[in-house]
């Protein structure tokens, strides 16, 4: 049986798109007759604290879903302090180096990037001619950090650029989750082998049923990280609630601000449901008419995995993030697009959407399109051929 190792910063029981994506990749490869092992930190995301059941250990190895998982020590932190975040990444990097020193690694290794520093540790310490290194790039750092305002073009940024280029150069194959990522990489290394590996979900599609309409308003939902990049607090303050009721699921940095806003402004038709498990969330999302996918800044190379997940659920989308995601929504007729941060255009678009158009027929067509074009198994089989 062929062996493959996946090195990642996120893995269940942590929640979120990154964790789900890598778990599905690991499980999918295991189903393709690979013996899969995973190296990941002791679970700590997004709260920045080691989960109960994993505290007080340097390393914990388990077998779950026939996958061997090595969880290594990390200095857990979700602090905004850049030094603390650097220490957290360095701590995991040191744990990886320790693991590499004492364990034999398979000939095929998939490394998740970002974080750049963790990816660099892997590419530097385990590169050799006999081992095939596959770099799985889900976001373009440091470019994304620059666009988000997290970085400035200074010495540190130039150092990150050098690390980024080193990682691409040493990779035998680069997987990119968007066309923009692959375009960027081949502009730097034209001969580099690349593969478009989208963040397609792997779950059984639900049977869609007719939805009962209440109070004549569109029930719009957001589910996911309540972080700075998503701008959900700002969205709450800018929406016109005349024709919509806004439902929110998730947790993150803006959670308390959103809860305070709702408490102080009961006239705003916002309902915050907290954080629930992904399987429960899928069932809950089927009750809504429309979902919004917002980003405060258009981030080059980024395509939210929600597009593919919601497509499979048959949920119409209002995309508010720009970039390649816009093209996917329009190409496959999954909903509507509005330029990011243009709240006037957003409210105008919402006023034009007729509730009766968000019907069973439209939802079924979205789901059918997603099943045909965002197929996890087909993509996985194509990937296995080039590994």
UniProtKB/TrEMBL annotation:
One Gene Ontology molecular-function label: hexosyltransferase activity
Residues covered by the Glycosyl transferase family domain: 231-367
Coiled coil: none
Highest taxon in the source lineage: Bacteria
Statement: the UniProt record of this protein carries the keyword Transferase: yes
Keywords annotated in UniProt: Transferase
Stretches assigned to the Glycosyltransferase subfamily 4-like N-terminal domain: 17-190
Keyword check for Transferase: yes
Listed name of the protein: Glycosyltransferase
Organism whose genome encodes this protein: Neotamlana sedimentorum
Lineage of origin: Bacteria, Pseudomonadati, Bacteroidota, Flavobacteriia, Flavobacteriales
